[in-house]
Design a protein that fits this description.
The complex is a heterodimer.
Chain A: E1 2-3, H1 7-18, E2 23-26, E3 79-82, E4 85-93, E5 96-103, H2 118-122, E6 126-128, E7 137-139, E8 141-142, E9 154-155, H3 166-170, E10 183-189, E11 192-194, E12 199-200, E13 217-219, H4 220-227, E14 248-255, H5 269-284, E15 289-294, H6 304-313, E16 318-321, E17 327-329, E18 336-341, E19 347-352, E20 354-359, E21 361-362, H7 365-374, E22 399-401, H8 411-428, E23 463-468, H9 480-487, E24 493-499, H10 505-518, E25 522-527, H11 530-543, E26 551-555, H12 556-561, H13 568-587, E27 595-598, E28 602-606, H14 610-621, E29 625-629, H15 651-664, E30 668-671, E31 674-682, E32 685-693, E33 699-706, E34 708-711, E35 715-717, E36 729-731, H16 732-741, H17 743-746, E37 751-758, H18 771-785, E38 790-795, H19 805-813, E39 817-820, E40 828-832, E41 837-844, E42 849-854, E43 858-862, E44 864-866, H20 870-877, E45 904-906, H21 916-934, E46 938-941, E47 946-948, H22 958-962, E48 969-971, H23 975-982, E49 1009-1011, E50 1032-1034, H24 1039-1043
Parallel strand pairs in A: 1-2, 1-11, 2-3, 11-22, 13-20, 14-15, 14-20, 15-16, 23-24, 23-25, 25-26, 28-29, 28-34, 29-30, 34-45, 36-43, 37-38, 37-43, 38-39
Antiparallel strand pairs in A: 4-5, 5-10, 6-7, 8-9, 12-21, 17-18, 18-19, 27-46, 31-32, 32-33, 35-44, 40-41, 41-42, 47-50, 48-49
Chain B: H1 14-19, E1 27-32, H2 35-45, E2 54-59, H3 67-76, E3 80-85, H4 96-114, E4 121-125, H5 131-148, H6 152-160, H7 168-175
Classes of the chains: A alpha/beta, B alpha/beta.
Chain lengths: 1059, 186
């Protein structure tokens, strides 16, 4: 059971469903999506691209879902969504829980709601819209968002609803029942994942900021809605007081974080404020002045530092380090006036037209209630208590946690947590994996068995056209009877029928019977949105023995009747035209089948550090073989040099524990002193050559076969900086070693100066995320150990995000001095020969002069850089690297553990510097994702993909350049074939017919033609539009299907009247 | 540029101007199944009204846009063509919409050269939730085409009295035309 239907819960539920477990997804609001559904854009790429959340292909935007598996009628067969539901009691233990639930009535039967919206039209009650954060009104009969899951209206039958019953009267399908009662349910589950999310801090309590009193003071979520394309203004930013575009906007950071009441950092506000400021610049033009008042800039992930730099340099956003005591309103203009002090103590007052409070994150009230029901521990801040080395487990066995309920988190980390928690559940319930079967064979998800497909290759085209009045709602505009009658006379059309409700069981049955009676082999359905109903009709057609690609759905509802209410004639003409095109297109359609592949049940994990070992254990514990490759002599990676952590746990204990478990595991094969020399194949069937160098200089080569690959190559401290060659200048890691191994030396130090953000040459280009907390840890240790020693930290920004803020506070309480330096004036380090000690010079901003400090030792926080050989490995596996040199995932936010190349996953510091707990989570997430493939008995690849006609291909490389995913390759005939013949006896692989396995040669007998791997192709068709030789066609979108020449369907319109 | 004469386009005669008076533009719009389709869907859900002069063709991504399809639409008689894509940077296929945009620009040039006018072709970028923007796109194009008048190719066909057939003759040339090549053997 997954509790919480936000993005984390949805991700976890999906991963669990994919490994064949039954999942209950419990959400207390009427629809899924959580906070992320309310966001217009995500930093740092300004994506919405929730559609890129999985590799699945779906029709249209899946918002607020993250995958087509949440779209109605295509819902994953293993997921049961329970909305408006709360957990009332949990009994039992890990592996065997009994959960009691209470489901509040929705008053609308989801399966009967056709989203006509009549109920909302007649509803007399208006309420503030919580989805739009109170910026607009909604009715009591409403739909949370235009596209919600479940896709249906809901009646808010609160005390404000008079129960007039108009909605029930007007509903054309009788879906509304105002006498609906709450349901009590009991379900048995093996494990529970908490994805309870957060609530936004309510700034009303901070009266000095005027939120709620001054109309132009907004909280961040309200601004998000204003800037969102689905917001009340379609993304035009306006001042609430006069609906004018503001000319100056101020963001106020750390509202509800890093103060006396909430001593932790909310982690995401620095980034989202910058995003919001950039959005303001983009929407309102360069002249709008954007100012951000902050304490530190916490940009601690991939590309984030660059994002800040862009905000500052390209967009001209002003950052001021200060904290405000209050905001005042000018009663006439409703402008807001603030007084603040600059770093050197000067007092300034400024006027802004709008103020946005970057509000922090808090655990939600419902979450607190649930923790007491579950009996799990909370930490001092009210979030879920977890252990550093098992970051996804709560204090109750079998109950796991993910997302912002364990600590303030952004989307990417929530997704990692979710997949990681799913992996923990897979490990726990490893005997129950794959019990609930389903298949990806068709374009829709299904657990049903279908009759064999009819072979239609020799049949003449017999099209059936079905149109749906949608309970009469379409007939207001369209004369469907006449159109249907006319359609019957078009070429190829065998029968045209008008249905009342095509998507209801009786309508579907009628379609199926007609297909069988008339022996139809092509179907056109003129009804509802393709997004929601394609999969339903595909399923119907498939059940009647036809390939689902022999169907076209025309959206008469949203594209004709709904949007042309007053232009009946033209709307009819358009509807007829759309149906005519669909008939022509479907007549040319051919069955599309995916290729079936067997997933080889083993994994290759590259890198034997904490991430690699964790991932290997998670996969092996779930029942699959693992090959663990480590380049060094022993397992451990960066963990070998980590002696203590800020939280006080012992990392060496973790190391011993992991190594012992890995070495003793019967399903893990460890290869030390080994590198991956060659890696080929595709998801489900990779083959790698491993080279092991023996101590005597010989090299052994091993060939391994595996279904998935996990990259966990880690990172290391950069040690190239010239300062490190000066005596007395060391790295933080060396300091840690000295504190542990040479305490006698440490005891005599009088003065230690730590410098943050040191890069490989100058100062660091990007934030390495872990160093600030590491510095706090060592500074506190030093002060405890040697209170006479003065510790000074020279920093740019202190990035102690989340609960780590308390170590910053503790360090200051223990008397550690902090001196900020600016990018323009970095500190300098010399060596004083006479005194035999290093000297540090730094510009003090408060005093505005240079300070010179003579130190006993100068520990540097140096950047974490990717492990040596990462670039070579990336080339070997054809994987991209980020601008910092780390491996680049498929999508920074939504697929942080996947690569674009399917079957390869990313874990740990190979992605970016990470704390131990984050590496463990990342590794679990990668393992969880890998398991979703390993557990599948068969993988279905291909489908709607591009294929190259090798006879036409001239090998010009245009497609290799143009492909957004770098999939086409011009290769010699072919590695693949080689591979299949070598291992032909091992699986059913070689027997599979595939046009891609044939020998290829270019024009004129020259070897080599472009090859597009159907296992990787994403089916966008970009290459087909550019190929100069017209050698590439996209399945299901071939030129003839697009151009519709026989009826001139692409350009010409029928002109005769409809009646 | 390749030399080629286009016999199709002639100035619109006065009679035909008159015919264009109550002329209802016939526009073909291509949209991608991500944001483009979704914007249409949103407009439908919210009942945002726009002219019914546009018929839609779906593409898996506007990266699939082929100059041949655009030209084919005009040749078949469309008065205008436009594309609806995800916002730049937000393409499901990373940068398919940018490729599509490059091709639209190239096609506009061709349309200018042959005298049809690049104005008859346009591309719009919008997010899936922008039902309003989708309606405005349809509105803009319908008004623009109404102003520009019918597609001269269609008119010349009406005049020559050949309504709906006979395109085969030009096919072998058109199929391979991509704005940089004119002919291909075979």
């Amino acid at each position: 059971m997954v509790i919480g239907g936000g993005i984390g819960g949805m991700r976890a539920a999906l991963d669990l469903a994919e490994v064949g477990l039954k999942v209950y997804l419990v959400e207390q609001t009427p629809c899924l999506g959580g906070r992320v559904a309310q966001l217009g854009f995500m930093f740092p790429q300004h994506d919405c691209v929730l559609c890129r959340g999985t590799a699945d292909h779906g029709y249209g935007c899946t918002r607020p879902s993250i995958s087509p598996a949440y779209i109605q009628h295509n819902q994953h067969p293993n997921i049961e969504i329970l909305t408006l539901t709360r957990v009332t009691d949990v009994a039992g233990q890990a592996g065997d829980f009994t959960v009691s639930l209470r489901q509040e009535p929705r008053y609308v039967e989801v399966s009967r709601c056709i989203n006509c919206g009549y109920c909302a039209q007649v509803c007399p009650v208006e309420l503030p819209d919580s989805y739009q954060r109170g910026l607009t009104l909604r009715k009591a009969a409403y739909k949370v968002a235009a596209r919600a899951t479940p896709d249906a209206y809901v009646i808010d039958y609160g005390p404000y609803c008079e129960g007039c019953g108009k909605c029930a009267e007007v509903c054309p399908t009788g879906a509304i029942n105002l006498r609906d009662q709450p349901r009590l349910l009991t379900v048995e589950v093996g494990a529970i994942i908490l994805a309870l999310g957060f609530q936004v801090f309510n700034p009303k309590g901070l009266e000095e900021l005027g939120f709620g009193r001054y109309v132009n003071v907004l909280e961040a979520m309200q601004y998000e809605r204003l800037a969102s394309r689905s917001g009340p203004t379609e993304g035009i930013i306006q001042r609430p007081s006069d609906h004018k575009k503001p000319r100056s906007i101020l963001w106020l950071q750390c509202v509800g974080s890093r103060d006396q009441e909430t001593p932790y950092c909310s982690s995401i506000c620095c980034m989202f404020a910058t995003k919001e400021a950039i959005l303001a610049k983009q929407r309102l033009g360069k002249e709008v002045e954007c100012t951000v008042f902050n304490m530190d800039e916490r940009a601690f992930n991939k590309e984030y530092s660059r994002y800040f730099a862009r905000a500052r340099n390209e967009y001209g956003i002003r950052y001021v380090h200060c904290r405000l005591s209050g905001i005042y309103e000018d009663p006439q203009t409703k402008d807001l006036i603030v007084h603040y002090a600059t770093p050197n103590g000067k007092k300034v007052s400024e006027r802004f037209e709008m103020v946005v409070l970057a509000t922090g994150l808090q655990p939600s009230a419902a979450a607190r209630e649930l923790t007491s029901i579950l009996g799990i521990e909370q930490n001092e801040f009210g979030f879920c208590q977890t252990d550093k080395f098992v970051p996804l487990q709560t204090s109750r066995p079998g109950v796991f946690v993910c997302g912002a309920f364990s600590s303030p988190k952004e989307i990417a980390e929530t997704i990692l947590d979710a997949s990681g928690a799913a992996a923990e559940v897979m490990r726990l319930l490893n005997d129950r994996l794959n019990v609930y079967r389903f298949s990806h064979e068709a374009p829709f998800l299904s657990s049903e068995d279908f009759p064999p497909e009819r072979d239609i290759s020799s049949e003449p085209v017999r099209v059936g056209v079905f149109t749906c009045t949608c309970a009469g709602t379409l007939c207001k505009t369209l004369d469907l009877k006449a159109i249907t009658h006319q359609a019957a006379s078009w070429e190829g059309v065998e029968i045209a029928q008008l249905l009342d409700l095509a998507c209801f069981p009786h309508g579907l049955r009628q379609i199926q019977t007609t297909i069988q009676e008339q022996r139809l082999n092509r179907i056109v359905i003129g009804a509802c949105s393709n997004r929601t109903h394609d999969s339903l009709f595909q399923k119907t057609v498939r059940a009647a023995g036809l390939n689902p690609y022999l169907l076209e759905v025309v959206n008469l509802q949203q594209q004709c009747s709904g949007v042309h209410l007053s232009q009946t004639d033209l709307a009819n003409r358009k509807a007829r035209e759309m149906l005519r095109m669909a008939v022509a297109r479907v007549s040319l359609a051919k069955p599309v089948l995916k290729e079936r592949h067997v997933c080889y049940p083993a994994a290759l994990v590259i890198g034997g550090g904490v991430a690699g070992m964790t991932a290997a254990l998670a996969i092996a514990d779930s029942g699959y073989e693992v090959h663990l490759v480590e380049r060094a002599e022993m397992l451990g990676g960066s963990l070998l040099n980590l002696y203590y952590v800020a939280e006080g746990y012992n990392p060496q204990r973790l190391l011993r524990d992991l190594v012992n478990r890995v070495l003793a595991h019967t399903r893990i094969q460890v290869y030390t002193r080994t590198e991956v020399a060659r890696h080929r194949g595709h998801v489900g069937d990779f083959r790698s050559t491993l080279h092991t160098s023996l101590p005597d200089g010989r090299t052994i080569s091993t060939e391994v076969r595996h279904g998935v690959t996990i990259i966990a190559t880690g990172g290391r401290e950069a040690h190239e900086h010239p300062w490190l060659r000066l005596p007395g200048v060391i790295t933080q890691r060396q300091l840690e070693e000295m504190i542990i191994h040479e305490p006698q030396k440490v005891a005599v130090w009088k003065n230690v100066v730590m410098i943050q953000c040191v890069g490989t040459e100058g100062m660091a280009k990007y934030c390495s995320r872990v160093c600030c907390t590491n510095t706090m840890k060592n500074a506190i240790r030093l002060r405890l150990f040697n209170p006479g020693c003065q510790v000074t930290v020279l920093y740019r920004n202190i990035v102690t995000y989340g609960f780590r803020e308390r170590y910053y506070t503790e360090a200051r309480q223990r008397g550690v001095l902090f001196v900020r330096w600016l990018d323009e004036l970095p500190p300098q380090v010399f060596y004083d020969e006479q005194r035999g000690r290093p000297i540090v010079r730094v510009r003090d901003l408060a005093l505005d002069r240079w300070l010179e400090i003579c130190a006993d030792v100068v520990p540097l926080s140096v950047s974490v850089v990717p492990a040596d050989g990462s670039a070579a490995l990336a080339r070997r596996l054809r994987l991209p690297l980020s601008s910092e040199g780390f491996f680049e995932e498929a999508q920074l936010k939504l697929r942080p553990m996947d690569f674009m190349r399917e079957g390869i996953f990313l874990a740990g510091m190979a992605a970016y510097p990470k704390f131990l707990e984050e590496s463990i989570t990342h590794a679990l997430a990668a393992a969880g994702r890998a398991l979703t493939l390993l557990t599948q008995k068969s993988l279905y690849l291909g489908g709607v993909v591009a294929y190259v006609d090798p006879q036409k291909c001239v090998g010009c490389l245009t497609c290799t350049r143009i492909c957004p995913f770098g999939i086409p390759q011009v290769i010699q005939p072919t590695e693949w074939l080689e591979m299949h013949s070598e291992h032909g006896d091992e699986s059913s692989y070689a027997n599979l017919p595939s046009r891609h396995q044939r020998m290829r040669a270019g024009v004129g007998g020259l070897g080599g033609a472009a090859f597009i791997d159907p296992a990787q192709c994403q089916g966008c068709g970009t290459c087909t539009g550019e190929c100069p030789a017209n050698a590439i066609q996209l399945t299901h979108y071939t030129d003839e299907q697009m151009m519709l020449r026989p009826i001139r369907g692409l350009g010409a319109w029928l002109s005769e009247p409809i009646h | 540029m390749v030399e080629r004469t286009y016999p199709l386009v002639q100035p619109i005669a006065l009679v035909e101007r008159a015919m264009a008076e109550d002329f209802e533009p016939q526009i073909t719009a291509f949209y991608c199944i991500y944001c483009g389709y979704m914007a249409a869907d949103t407009a439908g859900i919210l009942h945002i009204q726009y002219p019914a002069n546009v018929k839609f063709v779906r593409l898996p991504c506007t990266g699939k846009t082929d100059i041949r399809y655009i030209l084919e639409a005009f040749e078949q008689g469309a008065d205008g063509v436009y594309l609806v894509a995800c916002p730049i940077g937000n393409c499901h296929h990373v940068r398919g919409n940018e490729r599509g945009w490059a091709r639209v620009k190239r096609a506009k040039k061709i349309l200018d050269e042959i005298g049809l006018g690049g104005e008859r072709l346009e591309m719009f970028f919008m997010s899936g939730s922008q039902g309003g923007a989708f309606a405005i796109a349809a509105q803009t194009m319908t008004e623009r085409i109404r102003r520009m008048g019918p597609n001269p190719i269609r008119l010349s066909e009406v005049r020559a009295g050949r309504p709906d057939t006979e395109t085969e003759k030009e096919d072998s040339e058109e199929v391979d035309f991509r704005g940089r090549r004119s002919k291909k053997s075979g």
